[in-house]
Amino acid sequence: MRLLLLPLALFALPLLEIATFIYVGRHIGVGWTLLLVLVSAVSGALLLKHQGLDALKRIAAAARNGEDAGRELVHAAMIVVAGFLLILPGFLTDILGILLFLPPVRELAWKLVARRIVIVTTRTTRGPRPEGGPRRNAQIIDLDADEFSTDRPKPQDGKADDEDFRRLP
């Protein structure tokens, strides 16, 4: 049933957008309607640029601090989708795009989606930590070139976490 809704929505969206164009055009005029579409496209591009760069900075900061950047990655993806929705001509997609730019709406969408997706992140120990010292409980193993492999073990339960990557077969 859910798979049927996506093609139906993709078919209905252009029809609803055309109907909205006709409705808005009748009430404010064709010129103002076209100007609104142009302003929303330019606004979407500018918001995408500025908010997208801010999201990238937050992702980089989370990665630098050793935090999980999964939430920030999803927010950045929603910002990109919001920008593209604003760039597309249409009032319904503009409304959805503006809503996705609002942090409370993105947070609500994240809470609804977080249960259904799995974000796998890995932490690397390249370079010194910001404090300058080694990681707590760090274990250093010196290997020769023939003893080293980049193959990672497969998760035992189908869900990957940091412990799966630390275990050796």
TrEMBL record:
<feature type="compositionally biased region" description="Basic and acidic residues">
    <location>
        <begin position="149"/>
        <end position="169"/>
    </location>
</feature>
<feature type="region of interest" description="Disordered">
    <location>
        <begin position="124"/>
        <end position="169"/>
    </location>
</feature>
<feature type="transmembrane region" description="Helical">
    <location>
        <begin position="28"/>
        <end position="48"/>
    </location>
</feature>
<keyword id="KW-0472">Membrane</keyword>
<protein>
    <submittedName>
        <fullName>Membrane protein FxsA</fullName>
    </submittedName>
</protein>
<keyword id="KW-1133">Transmembrane helix</keyword>
<dbReference type="InterPro" id="IPR007313">
    <property type="entry name" value="FxsA"/>
</dbReference>
<feature type="transmembrane region" description="Helical">
    <location>
        <begin position="73"/>
        <end position="102"/>
    </location>
</feature>
<dbReference type="Pfam" id="PF04186">
    <property type="entry name" value="FxsA"/>
</dbReference>
<keyword id="KW-0812">Transmembrane</keyword>
